[in-house]
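SEQUENCE-TO-STRUCTURE ENTRY
===========================
What this section holds: a protein sequence and its matching fold, both as plain text.
Tokens: labelled as protein backbone structure tokens, with as many entries as the chain has residues.
Question of interest: how does this chain fold, as expressed in backbone structure tokens?
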Amino acid sequence: MTPLKSSIIILVADDDAEDRMLLLEAMEENRLKNSIEFVENGEELLDYLYNRDKFSDPEKYPMPGLILLDLNMPKKDGREALKEIKSDPQLRLIPIVILTTSKAEEDIVKTYNLGVSSFITKPVTFTALVDMMKTLTSYWFELVELPNIKK
């Protein structure tokens, strides 16, 4: 992993505290060197991306290189947040991976139509989550060339 790629911020939008903890543990298990930030709903996700409210310091909350987005969250769900992000010329280049419990064909089609990069159903075991995170991070941080997005 190059120094630039290891410095890419992963922003996780998920309202479930246990899922956030398990994701962090899976990333640690894979010895992922990337920084990870968490928000709990679509409103916080947009506040983070626009450096609003408690996320107003761009040094502390830099632009992520990858967003892991749950669909079913309070206040503003992942579908609504995805639509807003992909309609903003400054944010639309950020890769977004849906990471959700949903397997609904309607969700898969709708999110791809809105511009999502990938759609993954959350694994049910921790071992499967570790494997999924290993594959996901290998793909996004070792194989893919990501755009350098500035605020």
Remarks:
- The longest helix spans residues 126-143.
- The mean pLDDT is 88.
- The beta strands are 10-13, 36-39, 66-69, 96-100, 118-121.
- The first strand starts at residue 10 and ends at 13.
